[in-house]
């Protein structure tokens, strides 16, 4: 209880729990986010995440450790650095709301005739299942819901042929309309800016790791440090790591437009609302960042208003002996005599 009664320690640890909650959940669904938002293959999404995090965390930790050691930051200075770095990181996280791609247009094979004021399905004889989403790119540059919705009646290896819904230009060297699996190419140029900002954000976060550890350790008494470290690890695991995937999973599920179905009932999500996915996922992350920053600011205010520095009990110099020199010499002589007698 004595550890939790330390205000700076408690505020910083609670803030870290919010940070771990937001960051763990984001990383858990980041591969799916990159695949869905930027139309990346799975391998490219995973390689991007691995390279960005590995380089940013390694470089940021080295820079943070060097600067902290080089300029001999006090715990109070470390707390100020944490506030500054995380304030910048929080501002950068706003970019996640806008850096994304547009929702692809999915054609279901319905053509409208304004003259007759009726709707005719060019694949009405196919009896397509509207719950089986399998995006197919037609030779006309249109993405169809599935090969069936494109009116394709033939399979030619990895291609589809004899597609009645695909309208080809009059002058074309391709005699039969064809389609290929997957979405048609999208015009999206926000991927690399997103990667650059993510790298810089992770770099700032890694630079605050060592200052944060110093604040946590130096804010408690020497005798309480082992308990403080253990409690710190327990709390951010319990309040951060465990609930993060559940929280973000619920948030991501609300952005699904089409669920697959199977024998066991509802399956995975086949189609997401990209705009809602982007806003809700980074909205959750931004909220946790703001809460973390608020805890740090409160901790800084509390620490600055203390009569003594919150780490003063850790900086007490060892007491200097007040024994006179003559008495010291006598004690040394007596100890030497005792040692000689014992040896004999």
Model description:
The protein is an alpha+beta fold and 344 residues long. It has 9 helices and 10 strands. The strands form 3 sheets. It has a 6-stranded mixed beta sheet, with no helix packed on it. A hairpin with a 4-residue loop joins strand 2 and strand 3. Helix 2 (42-70) packs parallel to helix 4, helix 3 (75-92) crosses helix 5 and helix 3 runs antiparallel to helix 8 (274-305). It starts with 6 loop residues before the first helix and ends with a helix. The model is unreliable at 110-120 and 315-323 (pLDDT under 50).
Which SSEs are present, and which pair or pack?
Elements: H1 7-37, H2 42-70, H3 75-92, E1 106-107, E2 110-113, E3 118-121, E4 136-138, E5 143-144, E6 152-156, E7 159-163, E8 178-181, H4 191-207, H5 209-218, H6 225-241, H7 243-253, E9 256-262, E10 265-272, H8 274-305, H9 325-343
Parallel strand pairs: 1-5
Antiparallel strand pairs: 2-3, 4-5, 4-8, 6-7, 7-8, 9-10
Helix pairs in contact: 1-2, 1-5, 1-6, 1-7, 1-8, 2-4, 3-4, 3-5, 3-8
Subcellular location: Cell membrane
Pfam family, one: Kazal_2
Domain Kazal-like: 116-164
